[in-house]
Amino acid sequence: MRAMLILLVLISAPAFAEIEFHVIPFDVDPPIEIDGDLTDWALVPNAIQLNDPKQATFGEKEYTGLDDMSGVIHIAWRPGGLFFAAQVVDDQFTQPYSGAGLYRGDHANLFIDLAPQQEPDRNAMGAGQYHIAVSPGSLASPDSGEQATPPEVFFYTPQEGMDHHGKCKVAAKRTGRGYIVEAYIPFELLGGFKAAQGKDVNFTVA
What phi-psi label fits residue 144: left (phi over 0), alpha (psi between -120 and 50 degrees) or beta? Predict the structure, then answer.
């Protein structure tokens, strides 16, 4: 069964003051390795639980519960970039697509607003805003006969298919109940954003 879970991770603009703030932790040494193994996230606080049926905002009529789809989201940062990981429970995993079409299969979406105070009432993507998809790929074994698609980071906005020249790192792994996908996105690809403690940004993770 297909469903999308959406959770507002952090919203800081005054117009959304009723939304709970979420601190994105700084990743201390040694840096997180992008390898599909979440062991090095164990001491990183503020994991986000996707375990409330109310979070199913697309396909909610078909949503049957936590075994259908649920998960844990991890986000952290260092001066050079953003670390992201999703541990997803999914009873019907499939991702034969890549590039602009990967939205048709299983993946995670990051909607990032690095300029929340700029045009706070806008309702379309604009300056400082990014839509980035992180796909685990098909995770097909060589002898499975399935179409093999690699894990990838794909930019939908501000420029669809923006070439990150291999600067983004991504890795994925199947689990007994779903999959893990992990990625690193350099801030140089996000307009040269300068991260700092206490700086406000907005995130939606789906």
Answer: alpha
